[in-house]
Amino acid sequence: MQLGLVTKVFLELQAAYQSRQFNVFVLEGGSRSGKTHSIIQFWISWAWQNQGNPKRVAVCRLKGTWLSATVMKDFVDILKGYGLYNASRHNRTSKIITLYHTEFWFMGLDDPQKIHGFACDAFWINEAVEATFNDYAQLMQRCSGFAMLDYNPSTDEHWIYDKLCKRPRTYYQHSTLLDNPLIPANAREQILSYEPTEANYAAGTADKRKWMIYGLGRRSALEGLIFENWDTVPAIPDWAQARHHRYGLDFGYTNDVTALVGVAWSGNELWLHEHCYQTQMTNPDIGKKLIIDGLQQVKGYADSSEPKSIEEIYRMGINLHPVVKGAGSVINGIDILKRYKIHITESSVNAIREFRNYTFMQDKNGRWLNQPIDDFNHLIDAARYVALMELGQKKEHRKWTKQALGFY
User: In sequence order, which residues have a C-beta less than 8 Å from that of residue 287 and are 6 or more positions away?
Assistant: First the structure.
């Protein structure tokens, strides 16, 4: 089967599979090294080779709610690129795509009833560092064929390294962005900006840990994270949303995304839900999204450096206002958010990715600076606008009131 331009990752993976020496394939590499695209190319080729021989493949992420915006979207987009996507063979309710005679079942590892009883011919765990060894074992003991795992190595200790990579029947492959001819220029430029060079330090973009993980695809200890007191939840509780509900909007267009996040809070807890994370959005597009998501009458805040955009959206009948920013507003907003236990909805995949990767800057000697990197921060900035306008002001107002009354 002709797949057009293929990557080094695909060619080496295909050769390893055809050698019949392995039943586990581990693909470790940096961001945009072509792992996901190459694995989907492999599955297309594998399904084509098994025409007339029905097969079943489990495609897994940690959370079922993450599938539609991540690996299933990539799968559909690549099938469409090859002219192989058939909507009538895509069961969106059950999350099953049939290609030739192979069924690809997209499943969350958080659905133990399905995972523990699922018999398959092969399975793929995308972003496998999120999974546990038990997740892998449950699938493997009901698998008649082989396993595929891929990941960015965000930690230097993991069961994949200890329990899988040392097996004689495990194929291990390492890749970087240099192995991927399909990488967009903007993505390549962004990843190269992490490299600890004099120029990148001067520009404030150098980040040794991110260069190790996303550039070189090497394992690195987790250091310098700004937010650690957070977790994921299925949804924002209705009672919390009814009590305090706002949204933050961070404008983007070509290179940066437009980020829209819903924010609810009560006591010392705060909930975030991602509504939008997309490039090429005009102001009418943003207004339409706010209306569709039921946020038209909810009070929202956006970057005050875009007054024309805010006014245009406001004239659509949307309750949007500029955030009042001052000196130190970034650090101030972060400090306000850090006062809360933050809960992020499971479907908010980009928000989760930002919270996992938003770090302080380092100087060339490795010292951490009290300044965050200007990356992995679009939804965080949007949440910060709400924090500055609602949470910080209210805390300061309560403090002033108590002082005025002589309580302290």
Answer: 312, 313, 316, 318
CATH number at residue 32: 3.40.50.300
| Segment holding 227, helix H or strand E | none
Question: Helix, strand or coil for residue 106?
Answer: strand
Question: For 250, how many CA atoms within 13 A lie in the half-sphere containing its CB?
Answer: 23
Are residues 338 and 225 in contact, defined by beta-carbon separation less than 8 angstroms? Answer: no
Distance CA 204, CA 172 (A): 35
Place of tokens 């194929």: 171
**Residue entry with tokens 């999120």:** 130
Give the pairing type, strands 170-175 and 24-29.
Answer: parallel
**Parallel, antiparallel or unpaired: strands 269-278 and 230-233:** unpaired
Task: With CA atoms as reference, report the closest residue to 288 among 296, 300, 278.
Answer: 296
Q: Report the first-to-last Cα separation within the chain, whole angstroms.
A: 77
Residues in contact with 136: Cβ distance below 8 Å, sequence separation at least 6, in sequence order: 125, 128, 147, 149, 159, 164
**Single pTM value for the model:** 0.65
**DSSP annotation of 105:** E
pLDDT 10s digits, 255-297: 889 999 999 999 999 999 999 999 999 999 999 999 999 999 9
| Shared-domain flag, residues 115 and 245 | no
Is 181 in the same domain as 242?
A: no
Q: What is the pLDDT of residues 53-75, one digit of tens each?
A: 999 999 999 989 889 889 999 99
Shared domain for 147 and 246, answered yes or no, is: no
371/265 same-domain check: yes
243 in the same domain as 340: yes
Q: Is residue 98 part of a domain?
A: yes
Residue 118, domain extent: 8-185
Pair 280, 164 in one domain: no
With CA atoms as reference, report the closest residue to 246 among 266, 265, 267, 268: 265
Whole-angstrom distance, CA of residue 255 vs CA of residue 184: 11
Q: How far is CA 349 from CA 41, 185, 364, in A?
A: 24, 23, 32
Pairing of strands 245-250, 258-266: antiparallel
Cβ of 3: how many Cβ atoms within 10 Å?
16
